[in-house]
Amino acid sequence: MNEKPNLLVVCDYNRKDFLDLFKVCKQDFNFYFIEYASKNEVKNEAYKEYGQILFWKDYNDAFDLLDKINPCKVIFFFIESYNHVALNVACKERSIITCHLEHGFRDYELKASLEKITSLHKTKKHLYLLDVLSNFLVKAKTRLFFKRTVQKVSSEPKEFLERYYAVRSKNSIFNTFKLINSSYRTADLYISFSPKIYKAHQLADHLEENQKVVFIGLPSFDQWSDLQSSSQRLKAVLFIDQAFVKQGLLGWTKSYKERFVSKLTEECGKAGYILFAKIHPLEEPSGWDTLQSQGKLKLIDNDGFSELVSKVEVVMGFYSTLLMPLVAFPHTTIITLENHPVDEVFPSKFLVDSGVGHPVYQIENLSQVLSSIDELHKSQLLNKKSFIENWMFKLDGKAGERLREVLLS
């Protein structure tokens, strides 16, 4: 009996949705996950269903890690940090195949716009410095992983790593990518959800037209490939939340969010619609809980979500990966909300330009838009097929199988 190959995966394994991309192939590999410096950063044990976790501090350098794990491939969800690029370079030196696996919605123009108006990376840097002070020894050992790798690589990749360190230490990730164009920072193979999403990586990573890429669709949504519209239809709105407050995006604050939630509930009620809301896992339920206790809306989680989706007529949100399959269903009509405190950015542009989303810029106009939902549905229905092809590749329940085939090849 052949032993299963080892697969080293660089990802945030605190996120179960990331881990579940491997659901179809979890029996085919010995999975090893790495991203954090120590156990203090591990928030749950979802990874145990798939494999083992590793920590940067426990390895002398990237070559030491590769020698001890002996992976058939290294899968990166992102190649951003110093240790990410060090490991990527070491893989190239050892001729170990590296793959970039897509893990969500991407839009280069949106990212560029957000970069101009947000100071989020400064806030993160401040929090990171506090973290360093409280975990100095662990962080020092983690940083040594990078520095020791630099000393072991050959001259050309050594120059790249030194330059990456110098540039990244003074710039955001987005600007670092703009300034550095090197194959040492990119993967051998890109496993992307769809042509449109891959376009963001082509631009950000300076990828050539002949870059190896495979489109697989979205494994997370295989479960909904055969979802049928229920005969028990609800005159209801399903709202998909975004973590704007937690992430400090587009000027959203806790107080603004609470006012927004209150007005959203009021407008849906005015038009005779029940409001269901799915809160983003990073966001606090501020404002939502109070209105639910008053019977003005219903909060939902993953349990029963598919059943609800089959019944609702209208889906609302800003932009997110979760919106994409909800757009694809024939019975749904999509309304995007663009009433952000900072209005220079148009996050739902990809949905509106695709003809599958109708933007509302003033929340006070929502009830009026809901009154003409049938006409909106007819126009959006004509564009759903092309949206799936461009942004989702396929919604056939086989994305996980396609990923499995790529990883086993």
- Report strand %: 5-15%
CATH architecture designation of the largest domain: 3-Layer(aba) Sandwich
Radius of gyration: 22 Å
Strand adjacency order, main sheet: 3-2-1-4-5-6-7
Distance between the first and last residues' Cα: 19 Å
- What kind of oligomer do you see? single chain
What count of domains describes the coordinates?
A: 2
Helicity range: 40-55%
Q: How many DSSP helices? A: 19
Average pLDDT rating: 88
State the low-pLDDT regions, or none.
119-134
Structure summary, number of beta strands? 13
CATH topology of the largest domain: Rossmann fold
The shape is: globular
Main β-sheet description:
7 strands, parallel
Summing up helix and strand content along with how strands pair, one would put the structural category as alpha/beta
CATH class division of the largest domain: Alpha Beta
InterPro entries: A-2_8-polyST (IPR010866)
